[in-house]
Amino acid sequence: MNNEKLLAGLDAGHINTKAVIMKGRDILGYATVPTACDAMSAARSALNDVLKSAGISGGELDGVVATGIFRDALAGPVLNVVASVPEYVADAKGAFFLNNKSRTVIDIGGNVHKAMSYDEKGNLLDVIQNDKCADGLGIFYTGIAKLLGISEDELSQLALKSTKRVSVAIQCALAAESEAIDLMCQGVDAADVADAITRYIVERVAAMSTYLPLTEEIVAAGGLARSQAVVNHLQRLIKHEVSVVSLPEYVGAIGAVVSHGGGK
Amino acid sequence: MSGNVSINKKMDWTKARVIAAGVDIGAATSKALILLDGQPYASSQVTTRPHGESAFDAMKGALEETGLKLENINCIVATGRGGAQATFAHKAVSEIACGAAGAVRIWGPSVRTVLDIGGQSCRVIHCTEKGRTTAFLWNDKCAAGIGRSMEAFGDLVGKGLAETAEIALRSDKFPKLSDFCAVYAQSEALDLVRSKMPVEELIAGYYHAVARRISTLVNRLGMKKDFVIIGGLARNPGITGLVEGILKVSRLAPDPEWDPALVPVLGAALYAEGFCKRQGSDT
Amino acid sequence: MEKKGRDAIIERFRHIAENTPEYVRSLKEKGRLSAGYMCTHVPEEILYAAGIVPLRILTSHESQAMTRGYIHETYCSFSHDCAYQGLKGDYDHLDLIVTSSSCIHMGEAFNVWVRFAGFQDKSYLMQYPHIIHTKPAGGFMAESFKQFKEFVEKLTKRSVTDNDLEEAIKVYNHNRRLLKRLWEFLRHDRPPITGPEVAAVTLASQVMDKKECNGMLEQLIERLEAEPGQAAPGVRLMVTGGACDDLGLFDLMEHLRYDTSIIFIDSCTAARYFWFEVPEGRHDKLEALAEGYIGKIPCPAKDTVPGTGEKKRFRFVQQFIEDFKPDGVIFLYQRFCSPQPMDVVALKPIVDKLGIPSTELELDTTVPKAQFQTQLEALVEIIKGVTP
Fold this sequence. Notes:
The complex is a heterotrimer. Chain A is an alpha/beta fold. In chain A, 39% of the residues lie in helices and 22% in strands. Chain A has helices at 39-54, 87-98, 137-148, 152-160, 173-185, 190-209, 228-238, 251-259; strands at 6-12, 16-23, 26-34, 63-67, 81-84, 104-108, 113-118, 124-129, 218-221, 242-244. A 5-stranded mixed beta sheet of chain A has the order 3-2-1-4-5, with helices on both faces. A 5-stranded mixed beta sheet of chain A has the order 8-7-6-9-10. In chain A, strand 1 (6-12) and strand 2 (16-23) form a beta hairpin. By secondary structure, chain B is of the alpha/beta class. Chain B has 2 domains: 1-108 and 256-283, Nucleotidyltransferase, domain 5 (2-Layer Sandwich); 111-251, ATPase, nucleotide binding domain (Nucleotidyltransferase, domain 5), CATH 3.30.420. In chain B, the strands form 2 sheets. Chain B has a 6-stranded mixed beta sheet with strand order 1-4-3-2-5-6. In chain B, strands 9-8-7-10 form a 4-stranded mixed beta sheet, with helices on both faces. In chain B, strand 2 (19-25) and strand 3 form a beta hairpin. In chain B, helix 4 packs across helix 6 (199-221) and helix 5 (182-192) packs antiparallel against helix 6 (199-221). The longest helix of chain B has 23 residues, at 199-221. Chain C is α/β, with parallel strands linked by helices. Chain C has a domain at 23-164: Rossmann fold (3-Layer(aba) Sandwich), CATH 3.40.50. Chain C contains 15 helices and 8 strands. Chain C is globular and about 70 Å long. Chain A binds chain B through residues 14-15, 34-39, 69-70, 72-73, 111, 132-133, 135-136, 139, 142-143, 147-149, 169, 171-175, 177-178, 181-182, 184-190, 193, and chain B through 25, 27-28, 47-52, 80-82, 84-85, 120-121, 141-142, 144-145, 148-149, 152, 155-158, 181-184, 186-187, 189-191, 193-194, 196, 199, 202.
């Protein structure tokens, strides 16, 4: 067992860069930093943070596996990146690793959302990503929380307390935000607004998911999967049970390691 | 209560004949302003929160330290998208009319076009020398939320608005991003990170796209001089500079005494004063 | 008591307009055949002559994104909503769905029903000339109507005689005249009915059996004529633009901080639906229908005079302005509709020249009420010349 590799997974996303450290099946640490339009700097500090959280020095690492939209920007010896994995493959592998009964993962990220189906070994079968008008669901969610002066977790809790159904525009995050503010200006209860914006997000995710054969079990990943309100509405709209993987934002980073022989 | 309060302590409200106030409940901030015989006395700005407390908060801010009470004010006019929540107001006037009235008061009777760029909406107003509105254009849906999306973009690149504005003004090299939609522009900018484009160029590209979008609205209603810019984004030199460049028109220089976000609430207070005076002359 | 009768009739109309699927089911229970149509360029008379009740597919105002997989993002919410109702099975009781080759957005909603909502064997796409202001358009339409009639005959296994057609034309013309009388009330200073009420009745007429509708309209008009009329109406607002079946929006227009009244709505869900007649007593009924439908106030999608680019609709709009004397104009259109907002570019200068202030409202499934209210109040303030 001692010859198991010590690998870091780096998922360089549009908004956040996520890092994990794994030895075999054990996840020793994880960390997130904002990408802030500089993938390399973000990767460096995410790596530092995750090493610290795992109590490991950089020299001990056998290597870094990169994934995410900006993975190419991390390539090379600077960060000891030994392999690079497309984010779809990493998501599928990561979701399968975290739940080996799952065959579909719906990943709701900061700027894009996507769904992937895979076989009984975690090999990618099919993938679909959102269309352009639906970009930025996570950024939108963060913005609404900021507007309400609460944390994203509190926003998720608030949505569950909704008693009256109101709706916002479904076209895009800008229109949805504009109408959320309009509702608040009309004096609509904040919990109902929170539910409306949650439904906006889930409507878009569910609409995208219809392009894919939804094979059970279905799991949700990405930061927004942490919202119980999101998951509730998603189950209702796609008419399937959905469970949330543990560490939903790290599914890509974990999958990157697993794709490179980790996780065994 | 977080907010910004400013009081002219040289003035004495007990000697005023007419005390008039405006309260503006906007999408992002709520403001209140008190006039003593037509002269600005106290103003306050707070972050808008749901449930209608913001109207009270803003008013309370302007009243604090002055000894004034709500019932001392002869007339209060509410404006802004959430204006209906200011239940203590006597009347309400739209922020379009208030924006024009406030602008003419600050910059004088030569103002004909007022561009109001707020957090949530962007409006172009034509007015007369008396501050009466003659026409206006509200942003189309695809141009909603410009102010707030600029803030969100600043968060994404990890920089404050002042810094991004400064970067936008000095970068002459920038990518051409979508000026149809801020969501598209944001996504396109993020995707360019992959090609390792310097963040300064991304910021400049984003600013130029937003400025083109705003300028289109002005051109649709038509530019009549003199031109002024009000609203929260009037404080952003990146946007105002680029808009002036695209429109090839210089705005009247901002008045250092006035926060451009307070222009509509000033207009509301002027309307309140007008109502008082007319009521006085009726009786 | 009289007052109560009037309100009850209007309420019944409004209920039908807002619960069309329920009305379709009630027709089915009576053993009637019914056909949905997606665009007002469908000659309903042909269906009616064959014993089929034509009903317009209107929106449900339900916010959803499910149809994004079937219709392009930047198609109007009206088409998305209509497609959605088909997919949901709200209209499974219909015997037929029809549209004409006019509005491309509604054409896609129609395609969704045909491909994905179980209407593949009960649908008809009618050809409609792209430009109606040309000589060949009439012949083209008569021929297209003939093919449609043959299709309907095959479907109902009965022949549609000239008498059937003449009878249907008369029922429909009668309906148009009654609706017109209703709208004429709004020209008066103290109308006995409000604009939003007239809008609700007009909308209901599009989803009803016309004979039943005519009966209710006659009762309503009789009561209204006996009424003295309401208080002075305030600022007179005219709406012009595209399809809008959101009755709540018209209510909003009359519930501002200032007194206002809607005095005319020029759209295909209001006046443009019925403001024409089909010539009666003609030898060739299909030619008569073609003539009638060409004479309609044109939809902007069809309205370009070849060579000059003139928009004939503008003449009607100007006439309505002259007759109904609005103080302000509201340009109302669906977001992502192309022909309607393009019309505004040319129509607004005409309205400006008449010295009438205007504003534009963009429609979506959901409506930003606070923003629309501000825009409308700002418009009224311009009209009233409000000065500090």
